[in-house]
């Protein structure tokens, strides 16, 4: 198996892990954020904030999908474009992971109890491992040199 295919597979696995982790946590954070903001603002502003928060939630959720799309673009031998798209997807996944940790701190679940801590670490580790795999695979993807 050619090295390119190994790194493309690693990138796709990283994308799948990003999808799993962001689906678990993103909307919880954005729903909580909207609840905090909506109580203190005008209903029209609350509606606008709701739309913006939903858009941010979808953006953080699609990080893994974007990584997989970037890997498929590399398969079609468009290395530069594919690697840029992979980097964008990993960045979105990183934003989702940061949101996960902020949510955990706000909810107090990181400190609540040992079972909650283990659960939070498990959900966060999917995204963390996915981001690490994606970054390593992106760095290792090299355009083949033709003689």
Radius of gyration: 18 Å
Proportion of beta-strand residues:
under 5%
Distance between the termini: 20 Å
pLDDT < 50 stretches: none
Form type: elongated
The count of β-strands is: 0
Discrete helix count: 6
Largest sheet: none
Summed up:
The chain is mainly α and 147 residues long. The chain is 87% helix and 0% strand. The chain starts with a helix and ends in a 7-residue tail after the last helix.
What are the main properties of this structure?
147 residues; mainly alpha; 87% helix; 0% strand; elongated
Structural account:
By secondary structure, this protein is mainly α. It has one domain (26-140). Helices cover 87% and strands 0% of the residues. The chain is built from six helices and no strands. The protein has helices spanning 3-38, 43-61, 63-75, 79-107, 109-112, 114-140. Helix 1 (3-38) packs parallel to helix 4 (79-107) and helix 4 (79-107) runs antiparallel to helix 6 (114-140). The model has no long low-confidence stretch (mean pLDDT 75).
Secondary structure layout:
Blueprint: H1 3-38, H2 43-61, H3 63-75, H4 79-107, H5 109-112, H6 114-140
């Amino acid at each position: 198996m050619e090295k390119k295919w190994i790194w493309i597979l690693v990138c796709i696995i990283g994308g799948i892990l990003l999808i799993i982790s962001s689906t678990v946590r993103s909307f919880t954070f954005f729903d909580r954020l909207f609840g905090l903001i909506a109580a203190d603002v005008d209903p029209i502003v609350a509606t606008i904030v709701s739309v913006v928060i939903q858009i941010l939630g979808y953006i953080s959720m699609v990080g893994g999908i974007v990584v997989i799309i970037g890997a498929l673009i590399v398969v079609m031998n468009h290395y530069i474009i594919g690697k840029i798209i992979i980097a964008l997807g990993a960045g979105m996944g990183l934003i989702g992971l940061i949101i996960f940790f902020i949510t955990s701190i706000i909810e107090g679940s990181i400190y609540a109890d040992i079972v909650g801590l283990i659960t939070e670490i498990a959900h966060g580790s999917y995204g963390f491992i996915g981001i690490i795999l994606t970054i390593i695979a992106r760095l290792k993807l090299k355009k083949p040199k033709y003689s």
